[in-house]
Request: fold
Amino acid sequence: MTDSIRSKILVIEDDPGILTFLRTTLAAVGYDTILVSSGATALEMIASHCPDCVLLDLGLPDMDGNEIIRSMRKWTRTPIVVISARSMEEDKALALDLGADDYVTKPFGTVELLARIRTALRHTRTTAENGEIALTGSFHVGGLTIDYRKRRVSVDGADAHLTPNEFRIVALLGMHAGRVLTYRTMLRELWGPSASSDNKILRVHMASIRRKIEPNPSEPRYIFTEVGVGYRMAEEDRG
Ligand code: CA
Reply:
C-alpha cells in the first residue's frame, strides 16, 4: 500500500484471544487499530474516531452485530468487514444486504482477512473520488476487459458478444470487483426494487456469461460463485 496516511481500523470483537491476534496482525502491516468489545461502545467510537474501516464480530455480548450495521448505514458509508463464526449462507446474505462490504468466516486466514480489508479501503476511495471514471472508463483483469463507454466486454481482445442484460451483470460486478454482491442486491440494482427475488434468472444469465468469457466455465477465473450468497468479480489488475 502506498498510503502516506495510515488507515485506522476499528475492531469490534468480544473474544480477547481474537482481539489480541487482530491487534498484532493489523499493527504488523502498518494499520492503526482501535479495539472495542461491546456494541454500545462501538457506535460511540465510530462516531468519535471516524475509522477508515470497521471489522465487526456479529456475536457481541450486548447486541447483535447486525444492529451495528443497520445503525451505521443510516449515517456513514465507512466500510464494514464482518468477521463471524456464523457461516450459514443466510447469515452472510443478511449482513451484506444490511450494508456490510464483506464477510469473513471464523476461523479465517491472515492473508484472506488482509485482502478483504484492502479491498474495502480501496472501494471507499473509488466510490468517493473516481465514481464517474469507473462508469466511463474500463476494467481489466487477466484477459478480460469491460469497456463501460462502449458497453462491451472482450476476452483476450475478442468481443464476448454479451447480450445487454449479460453486459449489465458483468458491469455491475466489475464496478464492485473483489466484493461479494448478494443475489438480492444484484436483482435490485439491475431490475429495480420490485424485481423478483428469484435467483434463477441470475443463474441462467451467469451460465451463459461464463460460456462466453471463461476459458473453463466450471472453474471460473473472472466471476466467482459464493454459494447461496451471490457473485464476486476478481480484483482488477494493478500495474
Ligand atoms: Ca463474539
